[in-house]
Write a structure and sequence with these properties.
The chain has about 625 residues and is mostly helical. It is built from 29 helices and no strands. The chain starts with a helix and ends in a 6-residue tail after the last helix.
């Protein structure tokens, strides 16, 4: 029969798109599962506007038919296509999984899947302080929670031992891990949030999260809690020396988010919601989904230099930015209004530049010539500066009144200055190492050195004020210290001057700040070892400070630095590896790079905290 009909004819017969009109929102036929209805509904959302163009109608029909085929195949495979997020009223595979899982864990306290012993978690009095500290001083940095809802869930857990799903415990422990490490390294807040150190460490809390995820079969039982846990654990994973694990978990989180449909959240519900409670819950879930997805986009795009790839294609998601809204009402506010979502919305705008930066260098198997690459880098540098100009004023310049009303605004402003400067470095990274060896890339060298000075200046201010400590402060201060170390070693000046001494002082301060962090912070201590390894080529930082030009090396020997680091530390972290070797051919040519516009002058005009009081 198959041979007589022909494979194409049989396929068309079995999987032809139904001739009836698309279903209205929330409507499904008795014989069609809700999943299929949702897919057809989504496919018909882009319905042509009666233009009468046959090609548009044909394209629409093809898209609808393709979604129908996919829906039927996914029914057989037991997969969710994810077009009905937030899965509150659908009957898709994802909804059934959530219902069955929560029903066996919610009130009984005996989960369907074994979880690590709850005795590993801190006692209530300690947990309350850490959760409060996180919601007040850290949550703005990732914005992957609706804080009132999460606090309600925590309170229910403390009061009754009840939790929604096993993976919620993973989220809970991720928040605790990030809070504890930050609290330990933020002396001002240790006084404001006094607590007795728990018996567990940030590393043990992180491991509890990972164990809980795996014992709850998180890769099969996909949950938003799992995605949130992984995304928030980035706040602590790198410091714990677990960047590799974080990267692989994050890649899994991208696919889980796509299975949930978080990458295709619509701006409004297609359901006929009747009560204020239903409307609020739908709004809440969509907004949390948007917040989480934005944070994933930020993390994915900012990690491009470490793999030369990105996992989230800008052309393959439709979820919009989260609202510029506070948790109390989730009402959209003007861009000029500070909300808990403002910071990540700003970072999202910067992150969107990074795929363009990577793609413009050419395919990995056929990289563009160095001249074209550098021209692209300079164009992206200009785009980054233009993007910074659009940032709300209160995140650029100090506003004492507003900072008095918002406890985290001051450190958010300084954190943004650090991050923006580091992204300038990120844009120039392909030519950073070469810039210390060739005059052709002097603009990159000058720009990155000025950015490094800015990073270390802001980091020193945060550390000395005892403000909240975040992983980006540590990571980017290491990057900045590396750049200034190269600058000092490669400086061709006849004698040391105040500028060089200033660089050395900044490096010493950064090294001291990294060394003073708790022993839990593997990243910080690796940074110290790396700085020492760089200066080992010239006999150490202190002896080098008294040397003349004649005693300096002609070039930086990266292999020797890496070998020394491996000797002093058994595993070379990605921070050092990211410097890498560059295969771009050296070309001695001049290119205009707006040399009259000095980075430090520009950055001070934009970010300096004393411009406006």
């Amino acid at each position: 029969m198959v041979q007589r009909l022909g494979s194409s004819r049989l396929y068309a017969t079995l999987f032809r798109a139904p001739p009836t009109l698309p279903l209205r929102p929330g409507q499904a036929s008795a014989s069609t599962p809700q999943t299929t209805a949702n897919l057809v509904e989504c496919g018909s959302a882009a319905r042509d506007d009666d233009s009468g163009q046959d090609d548009a109608a044909i394209s629409h029909s093809r898209a609808r038919g393709s979604l129908t085929v996919t829906a039927l195949e996914h029914m057989a495979w037991g997969r969710s296509y994810g077009n009905c997020y937030p899965h509150l009223h659908c009957t898709c595979h994802q909804r059934r999984n959530l219902t069955s899982t929560s029903s066996t864990t919610h009130l009984s306290g005996s989960p369907a899947y074994p979880i690590p012993s709850l005795t590993l978690l801190p006692e209530r009095s300690t947990a309350e302080v850490l959760i409060s500290f996180h919601l007040e001083h850290i949550a703005w940095h990732h914005n992957s929670l609706h804080c009132p809802t999460f606090l309600q869930q925590c309170t229910a857990f403390w009061d009754t031992g009840a939790y929604d799903q096993p993976t919620w415990l993973a989220l809970y422990s991720a928040v605790l891990a990030a809070s504890l490490l930050s609290w330990q390294n933020s002396w001002k807040h240790r006084d404001a949030f006094p607590l007795t150190l728990p018996g567990c460490s940030p590393l043990e809390l992180f491991n509890f999260m990972v164990d809980t995820l795996y014992q709850a079969h998180f890769l099969q039982n996909v949950s938003l809690y799992s995605v949130q846990a992984i995304v928030i654990s980035t706040e602590v994973a790198h410091n714990l020396g677990l960047s590799q694990l974080n990267a692989t978990l994050f890649s899994a989180a991208i696919r889980m988010a796509e299975c949930l449909g978080i990458h295709k959240i619509t701006d409004g519900s297609s359901l006929d919601l009747q009560t204020p409670e239903e409307i609020w819950e739908d709004t809440l879930q969509r907004e949390v989904g948007r917040r989480v997805w934005l944070q994933m986009v930020i993390q994915d795009h900012f990690a491009i230099p470490f793999t030369d790839s990105y996992g989230i294609n800008p052309a393959q998601y439709s979820t919009s930015l989260p609202r510029n809204a506070n948790d109390a009402d989730l009402a959209d506010a003007p861009e000029t209004t500070l909300t808990v979502s403002t910071y990540t919305r700003v970072l999202g705008g910067i992150a969107r530049l990074m795929p363009e930066l990577a793609d413009g260098m050419g395919p990995l198997r056929a990289q563009k010539p160095a001249r074209e690459q550098y021209a692209h880098v300079l164009r992206m540098d200009q785009k980054m500066r233009e993007q910074v100009q659009s940032i709300p004023r209160f995140l650029l310049q100090k506003d004492e009144v507003l900072e008095g009303e918002c406890a985290w605004l001051g450190v958010a402003r300084q954190s943004l200055a650090i991050t923006a400067a580091e992204k300038i470095v990120m844009i120039h990274r392909p030519f950073l190492f070469l810039s210390f060896q060739s005059e052709a890339y002097v603009h990159t060298r000058r720009t990155c050195v000025a950015a490094a000075v800015t990073i270390l200046r802001e980091h020193k201010s945060i550390v000395e004020s005892g403000e909240v400590s975040l992983w980006t402060h540590v990571a980017f201060s290491i990057t900045a210290a590396i750049i200034l170390s190269f600058e000092v070693i490669c400086d061709q000046s006849k004698e040391r001057d105040a500028r060089q001494e200033g660089y050395l002082d900044a490096i010493r301060d950064a090294r001291e700040h990294l060394l003073s962090r708790t022993t839990n912070d593997v990243l910080a201590h690796r940074g110290v070892v790396l700085i020492d390894a760089i200066f080992s080529e010239v006999g150490g930082m202190e002896s080098f400070s008294d040397r003349t030009l004649a005693a300096r090396p002609d070039a930086i020997n990266f292999e020797e630095i890496a070998a020394r680091f491996k000797t002093d530390w058994f595993v070379l972290d990605s921070t050092a590896a990211s410097l890498g070797q560059f295969d771009v051919a050296e070309e001695h040519w001049a290119m205009s790079a707006n040399p009259s516009e000095d980075f430090d002058e520009w950055f001070q005009q934009i970010f300096h905290s004393n411009i406006v009081e």
